[in-house]
Amino acid sequence: MKHFILILCLFSLLFKIHAQDEKSPSPILFIYDASGSMWGKIGDKTKKEIASEVLFSTVNELPNQQHVGLIAYGHRQKGDCKDVEFLVDINNQSKANINTAIKDINPLGKTPLAYSAAQAIAKLKQSKTKATIILITDGIESCDGNICDVVANAKSEGIDFKLHIVGFGLKEGETEQLKCAAQAGEGNYYDASDASGLAEGLSEATSQTIDTNQGNVSIYTTKNGEPVDAWIKAKKAGTNDVIDGSRTYRDSAWIYLPPGKYDIDIVPLENSKIKGTSITLDIKKDEIKHETISFDGGKINIITLNNNEGWDCTSTVKSQDGKAVGHSRTYGRPQVVEVNPGTYDIEIVALRMNGLETKYTIEDVLVESGKTIDATHNFKTGIAKLGVQENGKLVDVVVNIYSLDKTIFIAGGRSYTTSSSNPREFILNPGKYAVKLRGRKQGTDTIKWFEITVVEKEAFTKMFEW
């Protein structure tokens, strides 16, 4: 008997654990905009068509055990600020029910955002259910309500919910109250200008539910003092193991990181030509952190000279790990390259000159946010005009210039027999060179070697006797 009771207890324990594992997530309740403005078009489709397709696609990606409800506003009467209806109850687990309800919606009326939120919250309060509310709207409040106040008051009453808001095709300046409401609802505001943006916003919102660990790291990104939309990706320090991620949508993005050390990549999606940046954070238990990341790059004013005069050069700006982060060509004029704050090496290659000193690296250039630093290099050259003649007549041969030990090719060309190319001009770094002449003399291949010396800022002409 004792053996039987022990087996029964173990079975009950396993059943309980299994039941906990199968516990359904808290409901998601969508509030759908069915106001008359949803007949407006983005591209070839109405906003209603886009929103319907994206919403059902989003719902279809949810777990099978996910309870999902639907509220619509503005779909029955034109001027009614109370036109809010529960189309699908939050106990629903059928994705098809959501799809059917969406298809039957006929956008018609006003945009009672505050009243819609109040009705959704009242339902949760009545049923004592915690849930994630996701509001989709293409317009601002049109019934004199204040959704931010509604949400804040509900939170102060202890009603357990998270509110995300997806603004669909809203204009700049229309989002302040919506952002306030999302923040009060411990959720996010997502800005969507098209179908792709709406899908991204809904996907992010449905992944950040009331059941998700509350964020303990917030990141806000700016450029020239204005908020910037950016991707956030946190990885275990020194690895590629992604722990959490988010998107700022020009607001603070929250991620949750257990205690430990993390590398966080932040990549701007707008308003900047520069690449993203990374920070490393050490998170301790029960710690909440906030980071403001500025994409205000510093600037490097690259100045390339030859004998103190502007000279055409290419340049490559490299970070300390050797990655190229910027390129330019000066064309003889200063060129500005914008990069993230940091320390860089600048590799400069001079054009239209030859020698052993046509490349130079300016090392350890410190760039500070919002500041411009000059990076200057002055090459040195002289001019050698080399020609070939025989008994006073110009001779066509190949003229090649080598290092003095004849191991490194420097420059070359043909002399031909015209005064425009014989003598031929070479711009060379100062120093001594070996000159190799190769041609035919009296029907025989002939090679002759000479030596020249090039002096800084000086030009000379040398006619070799063939």
Automatic annotation (TrEMBL):
The keyword Iron-sulfur does not apply. Keywords: Signal. SUPFAM superfamilies: vWA-like (SSF53300). Residues 1-19 form the signal peptide. Pfam families: VWA. The keyword Signal applies. Residues 27-206 form the VWFA domain. This is VWA domain-containing protein. It comes from Lacinutrix iliipiscaria.
